[in-house]
Amino acid sequence: MASLEIDGVSKRYGDNLILDGVSVDVPDGAFLTLVGPSGCGKSTLLRILAGLELQDAGSLRIGGHEVSHLRPSRRDIAMVFQSYALYPHMTVAQNIAIPLILRRLPLWQRLPLMARLLPQARSTLARIDAEVQAAMEMLGLTSLAERRPVQLSGGQRQRVALGRALVRQPAVFLLDEPLSNLDAKLRVHMRSEIAQLHGRLGTTFVYVTHDQIEAMTMSTHVAVMMEGRLLQVATPSEIYADPADLRVAEFIGSPKINVLPARVGADGTLTGVGLPVSGSVAAAPGTAVQLGLRPEHLILRRGGGRGTVSAIEDTGPERFVSLVLDASDAPVVARVAPDHCAGLRVGDDVSLAVLPGKALVFDHAGARLGFDHPAMTPGEFDHVR
Amino acid sequence: MSGGHRLGRLARAVRLVVLTIGAAVMLAPFIWGLAASFKPAAEIWSGSLRLLPESFHGWENYTAAFNRAPLGRFLVNGVIVCGGILIFQLIFAIPCAYALSKHRFAGRTVIFGAVLIGLLIPIHVTAIPLYLGFARLGLLNTYAALIAPFAISVFGIFLFRQFFAAIPDDLIAAARVDGFSEWAIIWRVVVPASWPAITAFAIFSVTSHWNDLFWPFIVIQSTDLAPPALGVVYFRRDESGVDFGPMMAATVIVTAPLVVAFLLAQRRFIDGITLSGVKG
């Protein structure tokens, strides 16, 4: 167990800057998820942590010790790969045992006959075997010990890969999109299994994914990456409710956050949105800004002539109502409980309001701006849900 | 529907006929040789085309083959030379192909280009310089002269590089994280995952060198060192007349190990395919 400090790591392939001075401190025992669209550099960062790639600049410390110059096997990390990367010619038990055998038995003791002849090697092997058994038991693999990877299902292979990683008791676990080759149902199951594993081991986890649900549900810390930079590192709820950057707000959340162009009025209020938003922006009057509105923070009312319903998607527990605002032509999606929009049809005339204090304001480049809003007056939003 | 089915059956029948004719054409000389090895000389020259011998002369032909030339010696030479060549080829080609497919280093494309050019150059082009080199080194008429020129196989490097390129990078990365050294990755991770390619290469290598006449003919004078194909030639020369029965018997004996080895390897080949495949 150890903390992990990433300090100013940069990586360039030819003319492409893949990582641009990434810094993040991961406290001991944290579950950090690196999330971002494909090509954002998250996997490269993980491979640099593992020592499979070398950074051009920056330093890495595990438990306070610089590890940049160390080979992968000396860094006290274990890694789980997207393709599982199990050794196809070895059984489940052998796959899990191999990192321990390579670590604890010197080369000459690994020769086929030596292990049987030397009492010392024999006792080491017995200890390894006990640890492998314990790991297999923990992951429910005991009955599969003698199978080869081809004879296993995707979920079982994933568990073997986890077993091979955890048997070493590393200081840091690195997981590179471990669930993306599984079907949807199994993914949800393995998601909670990995989160539970983290809870039980208490080891530092660094988890790479492009799936925001995985990031939000499993992590203690989420780091959103884009174009080689870390945009924000925070807890899942902070990332969602308090994004530092429009790109973070757009990446996290489904359906995507609505973004409407607006302008700062004389007294700091927002104008030109096409719906009333109370509050004042910390920016000079006349500045063009972008207003971010989460679909669940919109209140839909029939009539009022502010917009027209263009589509309704029913997911069961809630409906996504798409509409076009008359004022801006911008498409907007509202997330509504079925009871609140029963009988609503495409083409219906509606008006929108924003839950107070929920509007997010960003400048033209996407940086978050301060936005003061008046306190909610009692009774004003009684009709809300 | 039934028409389509019948067409399928017809197509299959046509395919079978074409393949059978092809196989018959390829096998005919060998089958004729096999038949001749059981016939007396008079019958071979009789002019009538008959597969089965009228009088069985097999025992005489085969004992004659073993008595008149050291056939056993030729076979042992064949095993030593082909085995030696194959072992060296694997020792050199596998690490080289691994480096070419899984490591990034300056000059990689140039080296691979050189390998591809090497594929285009037949032994006949380099034979004379090689002969002169071995003559200077005093190595003519030795096993070394038979083995050394083939110890590095560009074909092997090329074949393995293509096969290794299909091994997922993640598997190599996992091995590095687990603590395998680069050499251990080659011999304990890559090689076990590559049996189909290694078997295929072994078949190519052993057949071509077992049957090779050109190079042994150039560097070997002693009967004791002759590999099988050259041995058959000596056999004919020593007889100073052509006695086809025993000669065909010798040819059959010389070919048999290859056929047996191929059948065994084929089995291994299929095992290899079912063992490989990381994602399955």
Automatic annotation (TrEMBL), chain A:
Question: Which UniProt keywords are present, listed alphabetically?
Answer: ATP-binding, Nucleotide-binding, Transport
Under Pfam families, the record lists:
ABC_tran, OB_MalK
Q: How does it sit in the membrane?
A: Peripheral membrane protein
Concerning Gene3D superfamilies, the annotation shows: 2.40.50.100, Nucleic acid-binding proteins (2.40.50.140), P-loop containing nucleotide triphosphate hydrolases (3.40.50.300)
Compartments it resides in: Cell inner membrane
Keyword match RNA-binding: no
- GO molecular function, a single term: ABC-type transporter activity
Q: Where is the ABC transporter domain?
A: 4-252
Kindly list the GO CC terms recorded for this protein: ATP-binding cassette (ABC) transporter complex, substrate-binding subunit-containing
Q: Which InterPro entries match?
A: AAA+_ATPase (IPR003593), ABC_transporter-like_ATP-bd (IPR003439), ABC_transporter-like_CS (IPR017871), ABC_transpr_MalK/UgpC-like (IPR047641), Mo/tungstate-bd_C_term_dom (IPR008995), NA-bd_OB-fold (IPR012340), OB_MalK-like (IPR040582), P-loop_NTPase (IPR027417)
**Segments forming a coiled coil:** none
Give the family from UniProt.
Belongs to the ABC transporter superfamily.
The record's section on PANTHER family has: MALTODEXTRIN IMPORT ATP-BINDING PROTEIN MSMX, OSMOPROTECTIVE COMPOUNDS UPTAKE ATP-BINDING PROTEIN GGTA
In its UniProt entry, what is this protein called? ABC transporter ATP-binding protein
According to its UniProt entry, this protein's organism is Aquibium carbonis
Automatic annotation (TrEMBL), chain B:
Per the record, membrane topology reads: Multi-pass membrane protein
Judging by the UniProt lineage, the source's domain of life is: Bacteria
Major place of localization?
Answer: membrane
Which cellular components does GO assign to this protein? plasma membrane
What are its GO biological-process terms?
transmembrane transport
Keyword vocabulary terms for this entry: Cell membrane, Membrane, Transmembrane, Transmembrane helix, Transport
Q: Could you tell me where this protein is found in the cell? A: Cell membrane
Which N-terminal residues, if any, form the signal peptide?
Answer: none
| Record Pfam families | BPD_transp_1
Q: Which residues form the ABC transmembrane type-1 domain?
A: 75-265
**PANTHER family in alphabetical order:** ABC TRANSPORTER PERMEASE PROTEIN MG189-RELATED-RELATED (PTHR43744), LACTOSE TRANSPORT SYSTEM PERMEASE PROTEIN LACG (PTHR43744:SF3)
Q: What is this protein called?
A: Carbohydrate ABC transporter permease
Q: Can you name the source organism?
A: Aquibium carbonis
